[in-house]
Amino acid sequence: MRRYETFVIIDPDLSQEQREPLIGRVEDLITQMDGFLVKADDWGERKLAYDIKKKGRGYYVRFDYCGLAPLVNEIERFFRIDDGALKYMTVLLNGDVDLEKIKEEKAARESAAAESAAAESAAAESMAAEKPGDSDKAPEEDQEKELAPAEETAKTDKDGPSSETEDSAAEKPPSSTKEEA
Q1: Residue 68: which of 29, 44, 35, 92 has the closest Cα?
Q2: Could you tell me where the DSSP H helices lie in 33-176?
Q3: Number of folded domains in the chain?
Q4: CATH number of the domain within which 60 lies
Q5: CA separation (Å) from 164 to 40, 47, 67, 83, 170?
Q6: What is the sign, positive or negative, of the torsion defined by CA atoms of 14, 15, 21, 25?
Q7: Residue of 169, 179, 116, 109 whose CA lies nearest to 142
C-alpha cells in the first residue's frame, strides 16, 4: 500500500453545505476502495497566485490517505467531473507503508488531542469557578506571618541565649495586618 496526499482547490462561491458533500464523497471513495484516510485538513479560503476559472480565491482541502493506484485514479476522475473542484493535485508520499503503524500513530495523535482538549476544558472550568476578588495569595501571606515569630525564636535559640524566653514568645499573638483592618 502507498501513502498519497491530494490537494483540491474548491470553488469559493460554494457554501459550507455545498462543500461538505464534495469532501464527504472523497472520504467515502477512500473507504470504499480499501484505503485508509489518515487526515483531511480543511485549510479554508485563500488567495490564489493566479486566477483559475476567473476566480481569484479558492477553498483548500488536503487529504492524506493510504491506498492503491485505482483509488487515486477514481479520486482524480471525480474531481474532473465535479464542477466545484477548480484544481487538484496528488503526490506520492511513500511507496511502501505499514498500515498498522500508521493506524497506531493516528490513534496516538487522536488520544493526545483528546487529552489536551480535556485539560483545556478543565482549566477553563476552574478559571470560571474562581470568583473575582478572591485571592489565593492572602491565606499564604497569613501563614507566612504566623510562622515568622516562631522562626525568629528558633534562630535566637540556635545562635545562643537571648533576652527573650520561649514562654514570652509563645504568649505573643502573631501579627496580622488583616485582623487589624
Answers
A1: 35
A2: 69-81, 99-129, 137-159, 166-171
A3: 2
A4: 3.30.70.60
A5: 76, 80, 85, 93, 10
A6: positive
A7: 179
CA distances from 133 to 65, 105, 136, 137, 161 (A): 52, 45, 10, 11, 45
Whether the predicted model's global pTM rises above the 0.90 cut: no
- CA-CA-CA-CA torsion for 74, 97, 110, 60, nearest 10 degrees? -40
Per-residue pLDDT of 27-56, as tens digits, reads 999 999 888 888 888 998 999 999 998 989
19 belongs to a structural domain:
yes
Number of H helices, E strands in the chain: 6, 4
Could you tell me which residues are beta bridge partners of residue 8?
Answer: 61, 88
Q: Are 29 and 105 in contact (CB under 8 A)?
A: no
